[in-house]
Structures are given as structure tokens and as C-alpha cells.
Design a protein that fits this description.
By secondary structure, the chain is mainly α. It has helices at about 1-20, 25-35, 45-60, 65-70, 80-110. The protein has 5 helices and no strands. It starts with a helix and ends with a helix.
Length: about 110
């Protein structure tokens, strides 16, 4: 399980780097930082991304995934250019559609007994 977690984090960091962010940080941590901490004219955009990502992971972790990811991350966060933020949005939307289905299925199958 540790191996798959490491691979998933590496993929997440790659997506963040492609979208103009720090390659040592995850998309969730970057989103939590710009949605909740750093004042930016793009805060509404970051909050929309936060809502999508938090919805995706809510069956596994409950609310607040992005903010918790930011709190657990010790990296510098880069907002990126307009073009790269747009690319990040595409990455987030496409990934979260698939991941939302998987997290809900996982919660249904493995957490229904709780």
C-alpha cells in the first residue's frame, strides 16, 4: 500500500508541475493554499477547484481535503500563469471525474460496514 501511495503522490506532483506549480507540492496542497491562505485575485477560481477536489475525496476523508493537504505540506506554492492555471483546471476536472467514481465505489464497498 505504501508503494501505491507513493506512486499516486508522484503523479499528483507531476500534474501540479505541468499546471505551473511547484513540482514538490501536490495539486491539493497548492489549491488549499490559494483557496484559503494567500490573497489572490484568482481566489474564486481556486475555491472552485477546492470544491471539486474536496468533493472527490470526501468519501474517504470527509470535508477539507485541500486545506489539510496544505497544512501537511511544507513546500512553497506557485500560482502559475493564466494558461497553466487553465491547464491545471482541465487536469483537475478530468482526474476528479474518474477519481470521484472510484472513491465513492470504494466507500460503498469497503466502508459500508462501519
Amino acid at each position: 500500500m505504501r508503494w501505491i501511495t507513493g506512486v499516486l503522490i508522484a503523479i499528483d506532483q507531476l500534474g501540479n508541475a505541468i499546471g505551473g506549480g511547484n513540482p514538490d507540492s501536490t495539486i491539493s496542497a497548492r489549491t488549499g493554499y490559494f483557496a484559503r491562505v494567500q490573497e489572490t485575485p484568482f481566489r474564486p477560481w481556486w475555491r472552485a477547484m477546492e470544491a471539486v477536489i474536496d468533493f472527490t475525496f470526501s468519501p474517504l476523508e470527509g470535508p477539507g481535503h485541500c486545506y489539510r493537504a496544505y497544512l501537511d505540506d511544507d513546500e512553497e506554492h506557485w500560482e502559475g500563469s493564466d494558461l497553466l492555471r487553465g491547464l491545471l483546471g482541465v487536469i483537475v476536472i478530468l482526474a476528479c471525474i474518474a477519481l470521484s467514481l472510484l472513491t465513492r465505489l470504494y466507500a460503498l464497498l469497503f466502508r459500508s460496514g462501519k
